[in-house]
Amino acid sequence: MPPGTPPVEQYLFIFLKFIASMIPTIEYDYTVAVRMQPRV
Fold this sequence. Notes:
The chain is mostly helical. It contains one helix and no strands. The chain has one helix at residues 11-22.
């Protein structure tokens, strides 16, 4: 993955932030689930 590219899990979050900036009357839940997994 090139530097500066968001992980796949954040694409929906970024998309909703973009839509909210275009349509400010719609409110979204911006909480993001965080999972801790050991790297193999």
